[in-house]
Amino acid sequence: MTATPTGLDDTRVTTVLDEIARTAEHNDPDVMKRAYATAADWPQPPTAEEAADLCAQAALPVHPEVGTFLYQLVRSLRPALVVEFGTSFGASTLYAAAALRDNGGGRIIGSELHPGKADRARGHLERAGLDAYAEIRTGEAREQLATLPGPVDLVLLDGWKELYLPVLKVLEPALRAGSLVVSDNLPMLPPEFTDHVRTAGNGYLSQQLPLGDGIEFSLRLQDTA
């Protein structure tokens, strides 16, 4: 009897993930170089909207180590609701949605500021056969994620770094004791964010994990009063 392909063995999923990875390898360095060069002459750092436009053609996928970790977390945690800030082309969404499918249920709600990227992510999810487990909301994350269908079991923060803390604070009322927060790109995280999740009394137990470029891995210790 042949086993049904699951998650990271499903060729529909791996094909799309490989395509996103190749796009990032070939395009992202040039796109980011042009983006930095363009913004260098601006009197102020780019806003999230401006940065999204500058990086519209950059895939910016999670490192495969982080994606695999997400898949493992979702399979073991069996969350009803996963929330993602910064979907981009949807690589991390694919890892989480594949695990939700293999669990037999659950949903990931992603947020992406750039409409073109949101459309590409939806297309990737559909091609991978995972669109039934994912919803991509287009627009400013603090608005798009302010209303959710239930408690949040797992959060992935992988968007504009200066918005990690504002987005987390929007989500905190929906977190429960035992919810997990994965914050990607550790070297780039603002001190105010890491101070928030590492400071005793703020309701988290947090540590650094050497996956990809580094992640901050935080456990919510208590329900929000």
Automatic annotation (TrEMBL):
Keywords: Methyltransferase, S-adenosyl-L-methionine, Transferase
EC category name: transferase
Membrane-spanning ranges: none
GO molecular function annotations of the record: O-methyltransferase activity
Cytoplasm found in the keyword field: no
GO biological-process terms attached to the record: methylation
Protein's UniProt name: Class I SAM-dependent methyltransferase
